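I have been asked to look over a protein record a colleague put together. This is what I was given:
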Amino acid sequence: MKLTFLGTSSATPTRKRNVSAVALTFVQRGAWWLFDCGEGTQHQILRSPLKLGRLERIFITHLHGDHVFGLPGVLASRSLADSADEPLTIHGPAGIKRFVTNALGSTNTHLAYPLRFAEIYLTSTGISTVLTDADVRVDCAPLSHGVTSFGFAVIEADKAGRLEVDRLRELGVPQGPLYAQLKAGKSITLPDGRTVDGREFVGSPIQGRKIVICGDTTPTPNTVELARDADVLVHEATFIDEDADLAAKANHSTALQAGRAAAKANARVLILTHFSPRYDAADNQRMPQLLDEAKSAFAETLPAEDLWTYSVARNTDG
């Protein structure tokens, strides 16, 4: 799986950063999901290897303009892409369907594919599962931003352990269809009458990866719980610590607060995004300061840049 950051600025774009959007690509099947869709996202997609025809789902964390104003353009352009007849589902807070249908209807925009909506109405203040398929589960939790704002955890299904091929060869098990049966945990009978139990020749399951993408938020226990043992936590870092009062007034987080959340969650990697444009001038030393503050609480911190891709490795620590 890979994360591609299409926009990393908060509120308004800057000369080098667009507003919020991040893509999650499932490399093996070539499909991808989009998390938030600020204005100009389709231009960023054109500058990336991503193909609109392979976009399967869009997740919206909250309904502020810098996270949704790019939706009508992306949806319309997808009609002109390859595989334009494949359905697309938008997941998000109550009101996302009305926003999209009004924008498309008032502009007489007709899509060439089925557009589905899965508005999220959480029945709990904690973590809830909003999507499950054969490959992944998506959990969701409400955050704290003054409006309904969600964090999403994409949790990959565990993979079957590796087949111990060398041991099977030593036993004289011929390579071929029998190996597939053994990897599935089945028992086989060899021509000489011996029985081989596949469960004895398959290693421990390989744990699936966990990627957490949070919407805008002030510090909240739900961020920590959602990101528990995550391989990657993507968290806003709108302000530096000396501007913590501004962060609190705007219902945002500082980089230091993001670092503390990652440490409490025992995440492997923290990626910061959603930076205030006030820090983005070429001669401004606030961005290095912002990163240093996060690293003081959590060393494995990286700053996102527009069009930067991060490959999410499997955790092989046991």
